[in-house]
Amino acid sequence: MSKTAGRPLRADAERSVRAILAAAERVLAVNPGASMEQIAEAAGVTRTTVHRRFANRQALVDALAAEAAAKLAEAIEDGHPETAPPLVALHRATANVLRVKGAWGFALGTAATESDRALRTHDEIARRCVELLGRLRAQGLIAPDADLEWVRRVFYALIGEALHGEHATGPDPAPDPDPDALAARIVDTLLHGVGPRTALRPAP
Fold first, then answer.
1. Reduced to 3 states, what is the DSSP secondary structure of residue 36?
2. Domain 61-192 indexed as CATH 1.10.20.10
3. pTM over the 0.90 mark
4. Could you tell me the sign of the dihedral formed by the alpha carbons of 5, 33, 50, 42, in that order?
């Protein structure tokens, strides 16, 4: 449940905050410099209501980043990274992350780097990602000497490129936008690269 000033909100206030945060994501994704008034209008509430929930614009942006980070953590948890077969968990978590990142692009971008709460959540997500990669390594799906922190960074980069890369300008067609299909492509590239699947033989 969302909080302001450390106190849980009533149900009506909770709905108001969620409407404001959803509107803030929509508005700021298009215009990062949008005002509190513009966000209030998009949320269908008064400017006073927004200021009652958030002391200033930065407080709103910080809350937005924290909310999006929490949704990202929930998406990963839904993949059961500690208990599901690791390859299944990786695929499901990847598809879930694609959905969340696609919906909360602003909040998970620059805004996330300015919020202490969001940064703490992202640090925890990174830790859990490395643990899942460790399970994959234990099953022989990642090289035993692989640097798991480096693998995590490559994994993040693949997700970012899949979502934000300029696919339409390249010679190859854009990948299937379906999150499950795109997750399969990301996981395949992470674990197998782009080289031939058969071992290269030296020339005679």
1. helix
2. no
3. no
4. negative
